[in-house]
Amino acid sequence: MLRCLQAGVLLQRLHVVLCSAGGSSGIGEAVARELARCGARVVLATRNAVRGEEAAWRIRRDTGNPEVLFMPLDLSSLRSVHAFAAAFLQQEPNLHLLINNAGEQHSTDGFSLPFQVNHLGHFLLTQLLLQRLQSSAPSRVLIVASSAHQAGRLCMAKLGQPPPGPFAAFQDYCNSKLANVLHARQLAARLQGTGVTAYAVHPGFVHTQLFRHTPLWLQPLWTPLSRFCFRSAAEGARTVLFCATQDGLQPFSGCYFADCRPLQPCAQGRDDAAARELWERSERLLGLQPSLCTPVE
């Protein structure tokens, strides 16, 4: 795992790392543990207070780093995102790394669950923390995406609505992951020259995250298969850690990474017009004022 953390110059600057929503287990906890082991101050943000506090305690115990904290955040509630951002900004003067890694939750705002938790909640959180990221630059935003984005089909006029069909839950998940790739691409374009960079990261097929989106009738097949054929959380954390700590990644801002290297996303994931439209429609869905920053042509 620590092979991904050889770039010590950037790592020494990681005073505050925010692992949002998925930090209490799986990939999120594995990433947080390694960054804490290397001395970073880490804030775990997750919905379940008991699990969040337990994860923070485990990481402090395992790493000897007392600077691992829990703060409550429910990405499925936009009110919770606003409250969390306000509390975080009051408590933490710096933010050098924001890792948007969603966990399982339940939507309360009328949007489909995967789209709100995987895209809208993180879009809102990133916007609310953007000034702090800029004032702490050089800083990074990591958005945990997936190769499942290749099956995504975003209908811009129906964003946030569940797709039809017998595989609606899985299609919804794929759509949200395509939104992750486009979000990172557009965020990077809008933040050129600010010292803030953004990356979409595919952790690989990890047992902890993918198969909860399969239909119930397939889960008896997929669950045992995933345990023996797919990556552990620690293995899935490698590319996230690489993008969090590796020096010299600034030219790759906006790119999609897998297996610790940049890869070409699908054609839809490279569509700059779609990325701009997704950004603008996401702002409207969330009731945000249009961003002052615009992409550099």
Q: Which helices and strands, and how do they pair?
A:
Layout: H1 8-11, E1 16-21, H2 26-37, E2 41-46, H3 49-63, E3 68-72, H4 78-91, E4 97-101, H5 113-135, E5 139-144, H6 168-190, E6 196-202, H7 219-229, H8 233-245, E7 256-258, E8 261-263, H9 272-286
Parallel strand pairs: 1-2, 1-4, 2-3, 4-5, 5-6, 6-7
Antiparallel strand pairs: 7-8
Keywords, separated by commas or semicolons:
alpha/beta; Rossmann fold; eight-stranded mixed beta sheet; 9 helices; disordered N terminus
Describe the 3D structure:
With 297 residues, the chain is of the alpha/beta class. It has one domain (2-218, 234-286): Rossmann fold, CATH 3.40.50.720. Helices cover 44% and strands 14% of the residues. It has nine helices and eight strands. β1 (16-21), α2 (26-37) and β2 form a beta-alpha-beta unit.
Q: How many strand elements?
A: 8
CATH topology: Rossmann fold
Structural class per helix/strand content?
alpha/beta
Radius of gyration: 18 Å
Query: Percent helix among the residues?
Result: 40-55%
